[in-house]
Amino acid sequence: MRSAYSVDTVRNAERELMARLPEGALMQRAAAGLAAACADVLGRVYGSRVVLLVGSGDNGGDALYAGARLARRGAGVTAVLLAPERTHAAGLAALRRAGGRVVRAGRGAGDGRAAAGDQGGVAGRASGGGRPGGEGRAGGGGGDVDVEGLVERADLVVDGIVGIGGKDGLRPEAVPLAAAAGRSRGAVVAVDLPSGVDPGTGEVRGVAVRADLTVTFGTHKPGLLIDPAREYAGSVRLVDIGLELPAEPELEALQHADVARLLPVPRAESDKYRRGVVGIAAGSARYPGAAVLAVSGALRGGAGAVRYVGPAGDAVIARFPETLVSDRGPKHAGRVQAWVVGPGAGDDAATVGEVLAADVPVLVDADGLRLADAEAVRSRRAPTLLTPHAGEAAALLGVERREVEEGRLAAVRELAARYGATVLLKGSTTLVADSGGGAVRVNATGTSWLATAGSGDVLSGLAGSLLAAGLSAVDAGSVGAYVHGLAGRLAADGAPVGAHDVAAAIPEAWRNVLA
Ligand SMILES: NC(=O)C1=CN([C@@H]2O[C@H](COP(=O)(O)OP(=O)(O)OC[C@H]3O[C@@H](n4cnc5c(N)ncnc54)[C@H](O)[C@@H]3O)[C@@H](O)[C@H]2O)[C@@H](O)CC1
Ligand SMILES: Nc1ncnc2c1ncn2[C@@H]1O[C@H](COP(=O)(O)OP(=O)(O)O)[C@@H](O)[C@H]1O
Ligand SMILES: [K+]
């Protein structure tokens, strides 16, 4: 399981650990891990050109110390200071001692100019620990330096502008540097988080640094796992700095081994009923395909049998003859261990109501979300799993879609609390939240090729099948999203696919997880 902790939790853990360690020890651990990652990215450190973007906090301190380590190994290191008077003084001194060069970022946002700094080696100008603000003009004088050009021509850009202390997007003076990093021919390594993203929520307001690699310390932060910020982080490397964290994280992401433990596997004593029967109440005269796709997911989801009720029985049977089709309503269709209701349901509110009245786990998707009576959902005793995409979630919350897309974590939590249900918010990073609070599951196995009509129907069938097989709503949702995402990847393999291709790839994804 990969986990992420909130900024407050990280700060508390850091404080406790720092109290037990010699001053600066924690930052040295971080810097050592960062420098090692940078060296891996560079391949050859000696002779390489490294530019550090240094903000006013400890994030900049990490970058400076890591830069000092690289300078000692023969890299040409230049630190660009965004706030020379408030730069981490001891880190700056360490860089200078190692022969690093220091320049200051242009004062006028966007002018990209900087006054040249002294050429390094002036030990002790900013001596002592902490941040005394005694650096004065970090770039001691002489000539103009084209800072943006430096960044663009670097072999490696280290983004130490801001880390967990960041909020409200990048400040204007940092924006031209982030843009130059985006144009750089070299790799961009972000320190702890890509600067400009919200560490705790994954929101990105305005410009943020786009990294190839993010080296994060102690634990993942929510912003590294949730889009849109996740996309800015590139690949993420976790450096252990010895933090002791509470048992329950803010976010958790299942890994192959976790999913393998949760996937239902039939045993010798299993029969089709013991494996669980999933009922699919989906499709309409107008949207028979949604029924077929939901059934296609359900048949590959671990239940022993799939019952279909609704007006698309002929289409379902034609494609999947193994389906148990009924033209009576859900109440009279025979026993099931879980229901899926809503894909392609049109305006059939009666069926949604009937399913919600059943005393078994129910997954509500698509049209079903619009048709479900909120009070009927809240008063259910058996588990309920709602699976909206951002647009459906926005409609349920009565907000703009953009608001959900930008603040996915808050939206999924709010929905789960309001409906007293488990909620799976679909998207490039799918989130699953339980009504009782606790860690939110995040899934990132998907691919943007999954943004194709009907792929959500496949997911609802698949997750419903896992519910019928006995998984809890949180497990069914998160395992379903994991396998569905992987199936999407395997099916697409870099090319467009249809939802039925995704369903057909579920067995391969399942085998991949169990291998
Ligand atoms: N506290 C610790 O023990 C450790 C902290 N570490 C590093 O320290 C970082 C946190 O340091 P800080 O608490 O000093 O905070 P940061 O360095 O993340 O940011 C705070 C500084 O950035 C400026 N700032 C805030 N928002 C900004 C924005 N939007 N644009 C530009 N500048 C902005 C603020 O003026 C403030 O001076 C972590 O992310 C990590 O990199 C690591 O060294 C590991 C140990
Ligand atoms: N950009 C993306 N990256 C990864 N997965 C995505 C992306 N966009 C959508 N998906 C996934 O594709 C599926 C689409 O579901 P949905 O929006 O309900 O489509 P439909 O209603 O057409 O079936 C969901 O599982 C969602 O998580
Ligand atoms: K950063």
From TrEMBL:
Cofactor(s) listed: Mg(2+); K(+)
Catalytic function, reaction form: (6R)-NADPHX = (6S)-NADPHX; (6S)-NADPHX + ADP = AMP + phosphate + NADPH + H(+); (6S)-NADHX + ADP = AMP + phosphate + NADH + H(+); (6R)-NADHX = (6S)-NADHX
Binding positions for AMP per the UniProt entry: 426-430, 456
Region (Disordered): 108-144
Role this protein plays: Catalyzes the dehydration of the S-form of NAD(P)HX at the expense of ADP, which is converted to AMP. Together with NAD(P)HX epimerase, which catalyzes the epimerization of the S- and R-forms, the enzyme allows the repair of both epimers of NAD(P)HX, a damaged form of NAD(P)H that is a result of enzymatic or heat-dependent hydration.
CDD domains for the chain: YXKO-related
PROSITE patterns: YJEF_C_3, YJEF_N
InterPro entries: CARKD, Nnr, Ribokinase-like, YjeF_N_dom, YjeF_N_dom_sf
Protein's name in the database: Bifunctional NAD(P)H-hydrate repair enzyme
Biased composition (Gly residues): 118-144
Subunit structure: Homotetramer.
Similarity section: Belongs to the NnrD/CARKD family. Belongs to the NnrE/AIBP family.
Positions with a binding annotation for (6S)-NADPHX: 58-62, 163-169, 192, 290, 344, 389, 457
Organism domain of life: Bacteria
Transmembrane segments: none
Residue ranges annotated for the YjeF C-terminal domain, each copy included: 255-513
